[in-house]
């Protein structure tokens, strides 16, 4: 019994480390993709790469779906994958990859906030206190400027709002999955929801952008494409499968630890890539992570 528990614990820790490295590296991969492609091209191709990898899982299951399930899966695909895939690159046109990774950690708090506002779940004093601390951290991050001073309200980096919008999308998606999917397994929800938004991603990518033209004319296009392919196939598709495995075998609290470890990897990649973090940034980062921990702990 103890051997099994030990093996299970080891597997969960291994999954946590792998997911931390994968998701924490997503922001630097987006940054590399943006060196050639527009935010829309990065987002759409990321979805194409992720959905394509999961076709063997999604296609055989589509014929068994009801019309209601299809509608809900389209909604899950838009909220959980498609819209955030566009929002993060848009944010990173003006935000460093490391700070984007930190702001992404706000997702669990928005799960609480969205649940209390739209899904009749209860918000505790601890949740509220955590939200206040985290939002103070967000304000510090978006208002702190390179020279070491503070921006006026008109000078605040509004691109941080794109990350917050993505976090809100994730929060709504989690509640949609919790309330509207009772019969489908989590891996089916992940793979089929990506399949549902694949036509939209393809249409936008090849009819609404210069993606194809860049592949032929831009000297660095194929290298950037490689980074975004890894982002989609590993950072989205593979990570979803691994996270589903971890959620099933570990406690919800353990699974939520990835929220706190992702920013560490994002910051490490950013610093290695020459991104400069000043005192105010570290202050904001500490407040965000502390707020998420306070609001999300048992």
From TrEMBL:
GO CC annotation terms, alphabetical: membrane
UniProt keyword annotations, A-Z: Membrane, Transmembrane, Transmembrane helix
Domain EamA intervals: 15-142, 161-294
Matches recorded under InterPro entries: AA-Vitamin_Transporters, EamA_dom, EmrE-like
SUPFAM superfamilies in the cross-refs: Multidrug resistance efflux transporter EmrE (SSF103481)
UniProt keyword Flavoprotein, yes or no: no
Pfam hit, one: EamA
Stretches that traverse the bilayer: 12-30, 42-60, 72-90, 102-121, 128-144, 156-177, 189-207, 227-246, 253-272, 278-295
Similarity remark: Belongs to the EamA transporter family.
Record's protein name: EamA-like transporter family protein
Lineage: Bacteria, Pseudomonadati, Bacteroidota, Cytophagia, Cytophagales
């Amino acid at each position: 019994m103890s051997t099994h528990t030990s093996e299970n614990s080891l597997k969960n820790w291994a999954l946590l480390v792998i997911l931390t490295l994968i998701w924490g590296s997503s922001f630097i991969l987006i940054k590399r993709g943006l060196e050639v492609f527009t935010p829309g091209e990065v987002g759409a191709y990321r979805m194409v790469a992720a959905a394509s990898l999961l076709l063997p899982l999604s296609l055989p299951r589509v014929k068994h779906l009801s019309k209601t399930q299809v509608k809900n899966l389209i909604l899950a695909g838009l909220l959980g994958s498609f819209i955030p895939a566009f929002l993060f690159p848009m944010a990173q046109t003006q935000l460093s990859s490391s700070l984007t990774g930190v702001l992404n950690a706000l997702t669990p708090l928005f799960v609480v906030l969205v649940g209390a506002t739209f899904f009749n779940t209860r918000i505790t004093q601890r949740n509220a206190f955590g939200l206040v601390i985290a939002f103070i951290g967000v304000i510090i991050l978006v208002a702190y400027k390179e020279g070491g001073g503070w921006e006026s309200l008109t000078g605040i980096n509004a691109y941080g709002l794109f990350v917050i919008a993505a976090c809100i999308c994730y929060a709504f998606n989690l509640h949609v999955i919790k309330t509207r999917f009772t019969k489908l397994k989590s891996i089916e929800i992940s793979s089929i929801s990506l399949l549902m938004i694949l036509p939209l991603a393809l249409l936008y990518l090849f009819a609404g952008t210069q993606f194809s033209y860049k592949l032929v004319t831009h000297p660095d296009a194929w290298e950037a494409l490689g980074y975004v392919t890894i982002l989609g196939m590993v950072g989205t598709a593979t990570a979803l499968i691994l996270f589903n495995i971890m959620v099933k075998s570990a406690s919800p609290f353990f699974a939520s630890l990835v929220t706190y470890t992702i920013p560490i990897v994002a910051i490490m990649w950013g610093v290695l890539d020459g991104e400069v973090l000043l005192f105010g940034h570290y202050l904001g980062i500490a407040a965000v992570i502390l707020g998420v921990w306070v609001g999300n702990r048992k």
